[in-house]
């Protein structure tokens, strides 16, 4: 080393640290801004933006559900077809045990009716979800719902919670609203029944026009109730509206 060169000074500054930044890479906070471990904090007056409320147009939802119902005749025929199958099964059971054994028939018939109602509802949910995805509805898809066990458990829990909450004023309506899309969540996302209910509550608390659409379903149901044909059309529409709400509240859209 030549004498003209000075001694090499030892520096504890990190590579790339500007001169005067301090030891061990510490960067002093900007004036007027408090920093923690070298990371400046945003000013207190900055408010994080709120996520946008999902857009649900009531007229568009009803129009879509009506058009998709008539475009998929199998969803209209699902309830009478499933009822016919259940009737044939019950006739076979009665012929085996005999008409005089009313207690046995009742012991078999009541659970069979509950199972039929459960399978019918799951079939409607499956058909509505496939339609919203742009998929074809088949008989096999109606009788084999996706994630059927979790979806059935969610349906039973929602029904029990709604029945218990109906003891209190408006309790059934509140539970029905926040648990509205729980079965669809279980089917589409493949989660457990409890996670599906929690996810449903998270989606429905976003608000928007979802409560207004929920209020539209009640008069829609009573409008179709007086006639069989009206009921066969309205019930699939209600399930389609449920899936429509789920798709929109989760940030997506239905197949057009």
In summary, what is this structure?
It contains 10 helices and 2 strands; from the N terminus they run ββαααααααααα.
**Poorly predicted tracts of residues:** 1-24
**What overall form do the CA principal axes indicate?**
globular
Give the class from helix and strand content and strand pairing.
Answer: mainly alpha
On the 0 to 100 scale, the average pLDDT is: 82
From the N-terminal CA to the C-terminal CA, the straight-line distance is 80 Å
What kind of sheet is the major sheet? 2 strands, antiparallel
User: What is the string of helix and strand elements?
Assistant: EEHHHHHHHHHH
Main sheet: which strands, in order across?
1-2
DSSP summary: helix tally? 10
* Helix content percent band: 55-70%
Rg computed from alpha carbons, rounded to a whole number of angstroms:
30 Å
Number of strands: 2
What amount of the residues lies in strands?
under 5%
């Amino acid at each position: 080393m030549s004498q003209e060169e000075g001694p090499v000074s030892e520096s504890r500054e990190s590579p790339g640290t500007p001169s005067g930044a301090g030891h061990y890479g510490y960067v002093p906070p900007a004036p007027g801004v408090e920093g923690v471990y070298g990371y400046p904090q945003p000013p207190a007056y900055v408010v994080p933006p709120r996520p946008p409320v999902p857009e649900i147009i009531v007229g568009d939802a009803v129009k879509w559900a009506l058009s998709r119902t008539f475009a998929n005749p199998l969803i209209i025929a699902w309830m009478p077809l499933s009822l016919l199958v259940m009737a044939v099964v019950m006739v076979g059971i009665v012929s085996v045990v005999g008409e005089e054994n009313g207690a046995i028939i009742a012991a078999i018939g009541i659970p069979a009716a509950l199972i039929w109602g459960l399978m019918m509802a799951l079939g409607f949910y499956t058909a509505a979800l496939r339609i919203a995805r742009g998929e074809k509805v088949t008989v096999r898809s109606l009788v084999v719902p996706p994630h059927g066990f979790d979806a059935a458990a969610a349906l039973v829990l929602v029904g029990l919670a709604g029945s218990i909450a109906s003891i209190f004023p408006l309790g059934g309506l509140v539970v029905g609203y926040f648990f509205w899309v729980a079965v669809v969540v279980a089917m589409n996302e493949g989660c457990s029944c409890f996670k599906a209910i929690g996810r449903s509550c998270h989606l429905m608390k976003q608000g928007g026009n979802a409560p207004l659409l929920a209020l539209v379903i009640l008069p829609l149901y009573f409008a179709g109730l007086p006639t069989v044909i009206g009921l066969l059309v309205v019930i699939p529409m209600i399930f389609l509206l449920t899936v429509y709400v789920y798709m929109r509240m989760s940030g997506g859209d239905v197949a057009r």
